[in-house]
Amino acid sequence: MAVKFNGYIYPYTEQVKKLPVYVTGIGGTELQGHIKRASEGCWDQILFCVGGSGCLKYDNETVSIASGDIFFMPRGKAHEYFPCEKKWDVRWLVFDGLGIEDLKNELGLTKPIVVTSGDLSSLQNLFDRMFITLKADRVYGNYLCSGLVYQFIMEFHRMVLSVPNANVKNEILIPVLNYIEDNFRKDFSVSELAAVSGVSQQYMGRLFKQTMNISPEKYIICRRIGESKQLLLETDKSIAEISKLCGFSGPGYFSTVFRRSEGVSPSEYRKNGKA
């Protein structure tokens, strides 16, 4: 269990402005109060709860935060959080750097994320090391902490991927699945799915495959094949018409993909199904 403490450090950052990542603030209190920030006053930060309970509000949503819960809040996102009981022990790390935007995009850290019931031991250890280092060395401490900040962010990302968290997955994947359902008859790119999801294409692809056990590209093809099978059996439309209606670039490509999926040509599938 984390040792409770009340303290914070806002280190001097001008000397580390050219580092990929660095600490701009770190602290915690067992008596966390009510914090409300507008979009212009919000920086990238990761917070975790080691005791008590509170609530996080953003985008008209309210999320309960209890011991073991961690949340990420990106810069520019208006939010507020407040205790639900007398003691709410929260630790926080605020960070910046020349490479932070690229890192966040690569990891999919572009919107608020809450991980529930996580193992805080690794985060707590990194947090303690950064706090002690910055307190002991006001001159070079932030240089020494740069690698620790990176480890802290990567550890949080590992928890996002490994801890079952339906809220995170649903928030990202449901808009993607809905977009596919509405547009699979058209020609569109996977980059459009990433735009819908609000995260990077790489992260969206990894989360999609992790959750659906199939890549977005293959899922789209499966959806088109499924629609074409229905049209082959229930209508008299030509192969060329069905190819176009199901979003394939041409009847030749449609026939190739269909045979690869079903083991027979579209014509044979129709004939066998109506026999």
CATH architecture of the largest domain: Sandwich
The chain-level structural class is alpha+beta
In CATH's first tier, which class of the largest domain applies?
Mainly Beta
* Sheet having the most strands: 6 strands, antiparallel
User: How confident overall, as mean pLDDT?
Assistant: 90
Describe the structure.
The chain contains 10 helices and 10 strands. The protein is of the alpha+beta class. It folds into 2 domains: 7-163, Regulatory protein AraC (Jelly Rolls, Sandwich); 165-275, Arc Repressor Mutant, subunit A (Orthogonal Bundle), CATH 1.10.10.60. Strands 1-2-9-4-7-10 form a 6-stranded antiparallel sheet, with helices on one face. A 4-stranded antiparallel sheet has the order 3-8-5-6, with no helix packed on it. α2 (121-136) packs antiparallel against α3 (141-162) and α4 crosses α5. It starts with 6 loop residues before the first strand and ends with a helix. The relative contact order is 0.11.
